[in-house]
Amino acid sequence: MTMKRCEHCRGAMPVLARAHAHYCSGRCRTAACRNRQKASDPVPTAMARRRQWVRHTDRKVPLSVNGRHTTPASSTDPSSWCTYKAACRSSAGAGLGFVLTSEDRVVCIDLDHAIVDGELRPWARAIVKKLPSTYVEVSPSGTGLHIWGYGSVGRGRKLRRGEAAIEVYDWGRYITVTRRPFEGAPSELADLSRVIADLL
C-alpha cells in the first residue's frame, strides 16, 4: 500500500488523517493556499515587496490610500505611497499604480498604441523580440504595453519615430499596473539596459 503524503511538504500524512485530506497540518494547508495566491499574481516580487504603490482614477490621477480616506498621491512623496497589499485591498479609483524611484533601478518602457484589433503592430513586435525574459503587461486601454525591468534612463523620454510612440521612465513617475501579462510574460524583471540604449 502506497503511503499518502502531504501535498505541500511531501511528509507522511498523520495516521488519523481523513481519507480526503490533502495536507498534514493547518500550517501546510495555509502555506499551500498562499503559494497558490502568489502563483496567480503575475506582478514580480521585486515590485510587490516595495512600498511604492498607489491607486489611480480612470483619468490616471494617482491616489494615496490611507485607511478609509483617499487623497491625491505624489510620484515624488513617499509618504503618499503604500504597500502592494494595501493597494490591492483598496477599492479606490480604477486600479493600481507603481511609483518609479531612483533607488531601485526599476524602469518601464511604455509602448502607446502598440496593439490594433488585438494584433501587435510591427514596430512594437520588433521591440518585444529584442527583450530578455521580463514582465510585460497590457495597458489599461488594451492598446498599449508596459515593459518592466531594470535599467537607467537619467530622465524620462518620449520618443516618436514614424508610427512608434514610446516613453521610457525610471524615476519621478508612476505607471499604471493592470496585472494582465502579455503573451505569457514571466513574473520577473530583467536588465533592459541594452534595449533602452537601442531605443535612445
Overall 3D shape: globular
Q: How confident overall, as mean pLDDT?
A: 89
Beta content: 25-35%
Report how far the terminal alpha carbons are from each other.
65 Å
By oligomeric state, this entry counts as single chain
- Sheet/helix structural class: alpha+beta
Helix-strand sequence: HHEEEHEEEEHEEEEEEH
What is the number of E strands?
13
Please provide a written account of the structure.
The structure is a single chain. The protein is an alpha+beta fold. The chain is built from five helices and 13 strands. It has helices at 26-40, 45-48, 84-89, 122-129, 193-199; strands at residues 53-56, 62-66, 69-72, 95-100, 106-112, 115-116, 119-120, 136-138, 145-150, 157-161, 164-169, 173-177, 190-191. Strands 5, 8, 9, 10, 11 and 13 form a six-stranded mixed sheet that branches. A five-stranded antiparallel sheet has the order 3-2-1-4-12. The longest helix is centred in the first third of the chain and has 15 residues, at 26-40. The radius of gyration is 21 Å and the shape is globular. It starts with 25 loop residues before the first helix and ends with a helix. 28% of the residues are buried. The model has no long low-confidence stretch (mean pLDDT 89).
What layout of secondary structure does this protein have?
Layout: H1 26-40, H2 45-48, E1 53-56, E2 62-66, E3 69-72, H3 84-89, E4 95-100, E5 106-112, E6 115-116, E7 119-120, H4 122-129, E8 136-138, E9 145-150, E10 157-161, E11 164-169, E12 173-177, E13 190-191, H5 193-199
Parallel strand pairs: 9-13
Antiparallel strand pairs: 1-2, 1-4, 2-3, 4-12, 5-9, 5-11, 6-7, 8-9, 10-11
